[in-house]
UniProtKB/TrEMBL annotation:
Keyword terms, alphabetized: DNA-binding, Repressor, Transcription, Transcription regulation
Protein name per UniProt: TetR/AcrR family transcriptional regulator
Domain HTH tetR-type positions: 19-79
Keyword Transcription: yes
Source taxonomy: Bacteria, Pseudomonadati, Pseudomonadota, Betaproteobacteria, Burkholderiales
InterPro entries in UniProt: DNA-bd_HTH_TetR-type_CS, Homeodomain-like_sf, HTH-type_TetR-like_transc_reg, HTH_TetR, Tet_transcr_reg_TetR-rel_C_sf
DNA-binding region location: 42-61
Length: 208
C-alpha cells in the first residue's frame, strides 16, 4: 500500500525564521565573546545587538551559559569541518599544522569566542550540552590519532606526553601572542599566523 502523502523534507517558513534568528544570535554572541569576554557580555546586550526583545532571546537560550555552550559547539563543528576538508595526501603533522593555522586565523579575525576556563557554571553548562561533548570528543579523538602518528614517525617529539601536545595545540586558539603582535602593527594577520604555527611546531631553538 502506497502512502498518500510524501512528507516534505523542507523546513517550514517558521522553522526557517527561527533558524535564521538563532544564527544571528550566535553570530552576535560569538563577536561579543571574542571582543569582551563572557563576564562583560550581558543578555540585554545580545538582544539589543540582534534586534529582538530579551524575552525572545530567552525562548532560544535559557541563560548566558547556554548561549556560550551553543556558541562553543558551533565553533567545534566548524573545526571538524576544517578537519574534514583536509587533503587525504596530508601527513599527520601537516593536518595538525593546518588546524592550528585555522584556529589562529579565526582568532585574529575576532571570531574566536573566549570563555573563562575555570568557571564552574560554564564548565557545567558545556559538560551538560550533549552536542558540545560529542563534537569535542570527535575533535580530541582525531587530534590524538594525528599526534600518535606524528610521534611514531618522528615528526613530533616522543619525549612529550601526548596530553601536553594536545593541550598546547588547543591553546593556540586563544594565544595572546597573536593579539600582541597584531596590536604592534609590524606584521600582517597572515604573517602572524605563520609565525605562531612555526614556533608551535619548530620551536625557537636554532638549527645546528
Amino acid at each position: 500500500m502506497l502512502p498518500t502523502e510524501i512528507p516534505s523534507k523542507k523546513h517550514s517558513f517558521k522553522q526557517q525564521q527561527l533558524q535564521f534568528r538563532e544564527t544571528a544570535i550566535l553570530d552576535t554572541v560569538n563577536q561579543l565573546l571574542s571582543q569582551k569576554g563572557f563576564d562583560l557580555m550581558t543578555m540585554d546586550e545580545v538582544a539589543a545587538n540582534v534586534g529582538i526583545a530579551k524575552a525572545s532571546l530567552y525562548k532560544h537560550f535559557a541563560s548566558k551559559e547556554a548561549l556560550a555552550a551553543a556558541c562553543m559547539t558551533r565553533l567545534l563543528e566548524r573545526a571538524l569541518d576544517t578537519v574534514h576538508d583536509l587533503p587525504d595526501t596530508n601527513s599527520a603533522v601537516e593536518n595538525l599544522r593546518a588546524v592550528v593555522r585555522w584556529a589562529v586565523s579565526t582568532h585574529l579575525q575576532g571570531t574566536m569566542p573566549l570563555l573563562p576556563s575555570t568557571r564552574s557554571t560554564i564548565q557545567s553548562a558545556l559538560q551538560n550540552h550533549a552536542p558540545y561533548m560529542q563534537a569535542l570528543g570527535k575533535l580530541i579523538e582525531q587530534f590524538a590519532k594525528w599526534i600518535h602518528e606524528a610521534q611514531s614517525k618522528g615528526e613530533l617529539s616522543v619525549t612529550l606526553p601526548s596530553e601536553v601536545v594536545l593541550y598546547t595545540l588547543f591553546a593556540r586558539s586563544c594565544d595572546p601572542v597573536a593579539d600582541f603582535l597584531k596590536q604592534g602593527g609590524a606584521f600582517t594577520d597572515h604573517e602572524i599566523t605563520e609565525l605562531i604555527v612555526e614556533t608551535t611546531f619548530q620551536g625557537m631553538v636554532g638549527q645546528a
